[in-house]
Amino acid sequence: MSRRTRTVSPTTKTQTGVRIDARLIKTLKALAQLQDTALGELFEQLVQSALAGTPAWSGEFLQRAHEFAAIYGWSGEAPGGQS
Q1: Which of 33, 47, 72, 76 could form a disulfide with 26 if both were Cys (CB 3.0 to 4.6 A apart)?
Q2: Neighbours of 28 (CB within 10 A)
Q3: pTM
Q4: Which domain holds residue 61?
């Protein structure tokens, strides 16, 4: 029986200086902690889901996201009323 070797390309991580609403960051940090994952990994999951056209969250986790947003005062609106 032959074994296939899977080649995995290395992932390069980059530190960024992205400016994000403080209330949104608090909400996202709470969600990352809930998943026991790093904030950067949560961002990657969100972007991958968005690019794939699939929802990142559903059910209970989405409900928790709304609860954390309310706790930290993030309304979901971008500056200037755009969301």
Answers
A1: 72
A2: 20
A3: 0.74
A4: 26-78
